[in-house]
Design brief:
With 179 residues, the protein is mostly helical. It contains seven helices and five strands, in the order H-E-H-H-E-E-H-H-H-H-E-E. The strands form two sheets. It has a three-stranded antiparallel β-sheet. It has a two-stranded antiparallel ribbon with strand order 4-5.
Amino acid sequence: MLVLGLSPREARVVAALAEKQLTTPRYYPLTLNALVSACNQSNNRDPVVSYSPAIVEEALSELRTKRLARVLHAGGGNRTAKYRHVLDEVLGLDRRELALVTVLMLRGPQTLAELRTRTQRMADFDDAGAVERDLRRLAEREEPLVVLLERQPGHKEPRYATTLVAASPPPQSGDGPAP
């Protein structure tokens, strides 16, 4: 599968696009400025970053190469180019699965309860069992998109993580957590 091993930048950009599609469809697709703001917002993100427009454009270029993002060029009523993701199409994800993968890319490993709470604005889950069933389906794919991590000492519950993001190299200028 082409998308496994997204860089942390690529994951942040594609997840920010997916989150905005699910939570604010009226304003989606996003302009570059709106996407930079979405990537850099301080709530619902871990780590918080401070990406420049150039960093986001570079990540978009890589995502376009991987066929996970598209640009809608200016024209036809648009004064500026806008960007959209196609993660759900490429991976065959429904809205709930996309919401789960999005939260895991934006916030890192999460417990079942955290995922249910943090996906509320993006998708409807009847109960924790529905979240768990969707996570299990994502984990049992030929190429799993999530994994159940072992319970860490001092924590009551195990966490789920996405397999889409490659292990991150040391932060580079403009790439690390915001001060």
